[in-house]
Amino acid sequence: MKRTMAVMLAALFFSGVALASDGSLEKVRAQKEVVVGFCAQYPPFESKNLATGEFEGFDVDLARALAKEMGVSVRFVDAEWQGLLGGLGKGDFDMLLTCMSRSEARSANANFSDVYYRLADVIVVKKDNPDIKGLENLTGKVVGVQVGSGSEQLADSMKDRFKTIKRYNYNPEAFSDLKFGRIDAVLVGATFAIRQSKVDPSYKVVGAPLAEAEIVAVMKKGADALTEEVNAALGRLNKSGEYRAIHDRWLAM
């Protein structure tokens, strides 16, 4: 009996040490806000409204809803895409909510939330291009991708098919080169592609979706308490129907 009690006490002690070492949720509650990092260059997930100067999009509304469920406010920090994971590691943000996939964040050895969206990659070409109808027609072609994106990883996985992979800091740069005939196609997430084709009829999506990425919120490695709280909040938003309302507001096709 004494030995059993000693084991139980030891387990409680070490459990307490582990919990105390993870102050991720306590930090957010103490500052009364969750600092969300993103790159506001990717509508309809996140962008800046030029008329109002306000951030808007699916991730923006989702972050606000998550913060409300957690009982805190939200502060958005717009940063360069390539610097987001490094900034998270340095403590610049509590969480990244920026249409980032597991594969994009895996190199950072970070914590991931439950999957909150599944995003297909697609092929975009000029609307008047009659030759490229799918992946089979991209052999020997020049394709554009955003650096650090899941689309870049996808292109690299089949690089022998292409003549060249051109890499851009942001997708709009790739779309501009596509419009003026400097590249043959862009590989990009379906929601961005469809939005761009609606804004500018110069583009069209062709062929079947190439792959599906699991989109997650990203926390610093070891931020287990905050990760659990975000997952619980996501669950409540799904159950209440608020997630579906946000989805339909921005991502309904």
TrEMBL record:
Coiled coil: none annotated. Pfam families: SBP_bac_3 (PF00497). Gene3D superfamilies: Periplasmic binding protein-like II (3.40.190.10). It is found in: Cell envelope. The keyword tRNA-binding does not apply. It comes from the Bacteria. Keywords: Signal. GO terms for cellular component: cell envelope. Residues 33-253 form the Solute-binding protein family 3/N-terminal domain. Its main location: other. Belongs to the bacterial solute-binding protein 3 family. This is Amino acid ABC transporter substrate-binding protein, PAAT family. It comes from Desulfoluna spongiiphila.
